[in-house]
Amino acid sequence: MAREVIQIFADAGIAAEWTELTRDALASPDDAIPVVVVLTTARPERWGLAPNTLGAVMGRGGPVRCVYVFHEEVVRTLQLPRRRSSGDFHSLGRAIGRVAAHEIVHALTPDRPHSRVGLMKEELDRQALSAVDRPSPPLSGGELMEAWSASTGTRR
Ligand SMILES: [Zn+2]
């Protein structure tokens, strides 16, 4: 999961660092934007979301953004067998990373619409989650910082 997220953003020239959640990790340096990623077994419909929701951003605004990835929905979308091989677990990690990256982009650029292709397609289907080729970079580092500054009213 972490590797996929880091690679997707690296393709766009954005350095993503993945750390365990600690109080110190949230006190990020000035040149970093903290995003908390939560992998949950909760059902999205219990949170008032559509049953096939793969991920969501909660609590828009604020200095720390939080994104959720719904594990069971990712498993269902991938149509993984009940008995999973190590290859299936690899696919699952990659798919979770893609959903996390999609939601991270939403968290950092809340005004940006979905795209027709690539990582920011509105509906990430089995093909998008499992394709060997990584989805196209969603935006450049410059666009990311610009959108982040606009959404927080800060200048970075
Ligand atoms: Zn989306």
Task: Describe how the helices and strands are arranged.
Blueprint: H1 2-11, H2 23-26, E1 35-40, E2 55-58, E3 65-70, H3 71-78, H4 86-108, H5 126-130, H6 141-152
Parallel strand pairs: 1-3
Antiparallel strand pairs: 2-3
Helix pairs in contact: 1-4, 3-4
The structure holds zinc ion (ZN).
Zinc ion (ZN) is lined by residues 102, 106, 114, 122.
Structure description:
It contains six helices and three strands. Helix 1 (2-11) packs across helix 4 (86-108) and helix 3 crosses helix 4. It has helices spanning 2-11, 23-26, 71-78, 86-108, 126-130, 141-152; strands at residues 35-40, 55-58, 65-70. It has one domain. A three-stranded mixed beta sheet has the order 1-3-2. It is of the alpha+beta class. A hairpin with a 6-residue loop joins strand 2 and strand 3. Zinc ion is lined by residues 102, 106, 114, 122.
Bound molecules: zinc ion
Sum up the overall morphology in one term: globular
Distance between the first and last residues' Cα: 28 Å
Number of helices: 6
What proportion strand?
Answer: 5-15%
Mean pLDDT equals 86
The helicity comes to 25-40%
Features:
alpha+beta, 156 residues, binds zinc ion, 10% strand, 40% helix, three-stranded mixed beta sheet
Question: What's the short story on this structure?
Answer:
With 156 residues, the protein is an alpha+beta fold.
